[in-house]
Structures are given as C-alpha cells and as structure tokens.
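S1.2 Input.
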Amino acid sequence: MRLFRRPWIWLSRFRQRKGYGVHSPFAYSFIRGVVLESSAYYAYADLAHLHPWWVRWFRLYPMQCRRLLFRLANFAEPRTVELRTADEVAARYVRAAVPMAEVRRKEGAIPGVVRRKEGGLAAVPEGSPEGEVLRKEGAIPGVVRRKEGGLAAVPEGSPEGREAADFVLVGKERLEEAAAVAARMPERGMLVCEGIHESRRAKEIWRTIREAPHTGVTFDLYTYGVAFFNPKLHKQHYKVNF
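S1.3 Output.
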C-alpha cells in the first residue's frame, strides 16, 4: 500500500522539490547538497547487501531513506551518536557514515547504553560515570524539558537531564520519546525523527518539536523530520519533496 502512496505524496509536494522557493543559503545548501544529493558515497556499495535484491535492483524508497540517513550523519559530523530505533539497517548506515563517533544504542529492554570503545562496542551500565555525558563549557546546571505542554527544568545528573548526543535518530516506534530528547539537544545537534506523518499523534509530536523555543531550523521530508538547534540559524520550517 505504501508503495502506491509514494507517487501521490510526491505529487502533493511537487512545489517543494529541488529547493525551489528557499532563500536561506544554509537551507538551500542542505536541501540540494544533502537531502537530494544523488552522487554515490563511499560506503553505499558495502551497505547494499543489507537490502533485498529487488530493493537494490530498482533502488526503491527504503534504500533511498537509509542512504539519506547516511548523508545526514555524514553532514552532521557528530562526536556522539544516539540510536533510538529498532531498524538495524538504518543503524548500520548511520554507523558507517561516522565510524569515529561514539555510538550509544538506546534499547528499551536493555538497562544501559552501548558505547564505541577501542574500535568496538562495549556495554556500559546506565547511571555509571562512563555512561553519562555531562554538559560542560559553562552550561546551566540543568536542562529544560517539555512536560505537560510546558517546559520544566530537569536537574543535571538525572537520567532525563543527560545531554543528548550530537546526532540522534528516533525511530517511528519510539517517537513518543522525541520531544524529551529534543528538549536536551546541544546547540550543535541534529535530531532525526522517523514517521512524523504516520498518525495524528506523530504530527502533534513533530509540531511540538518544531515550535519549541530552543528548536531552530527544521525540515519536513515526510518520512523523516530533521531539526537543528543552532541559535545562529533563523528559526524556519521547510517542507521538502523527498
């Protein structure tokens, strides 16, 4: 069914193709050079085997989405990556894009995180000093979290008060967590949310993130929502035909 929906979605966003009507140099460069980039990246061939043959042969939309995640992570150049998704293929693409980054895998069934350590992945118990990333550089001793329609301070050091990674991918099955993650994203961070149009609730969550005071530029790619938190960028929302 979704395969047949794609042409209609593309037609409904025809006016938002190729960066038309975008006047911001940053947004235009991001849309043309990252979202709609068609050049082959170095790891595409190595990752192709993760897809069924018919997806590879016809370069279907699932492959396009995973390659987009690769480009987004590559563009962000994060020091830390947080994966809140059950999509192992998507996670593999993100890891391949930033092999030197520290990777945390947030699993609902595992009471801890996974960090990249000495070339491999090592489990770190949640709550231990190694499992936390503390806000530094003169930051306020705490973070701000959206709660019950408003913003509430969360003490630093609590599980909710840990600073999010530079690049966070939230899968559609865990989209309820996205607003809390967005509230503690660092200024250099990029948040990618999957399934922002899957339901009315998903649209509400994305709108909450988009309208939050600390959120800067956002991009609605239909399947994914991408949010930047750099205060130097003028707050703006763009819809892109991807």
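S1.4 Remarks. The helical segments are 2-12, 25-35, 44-47, 53-58, 61-76, 88-97, 178-182, 200-211.
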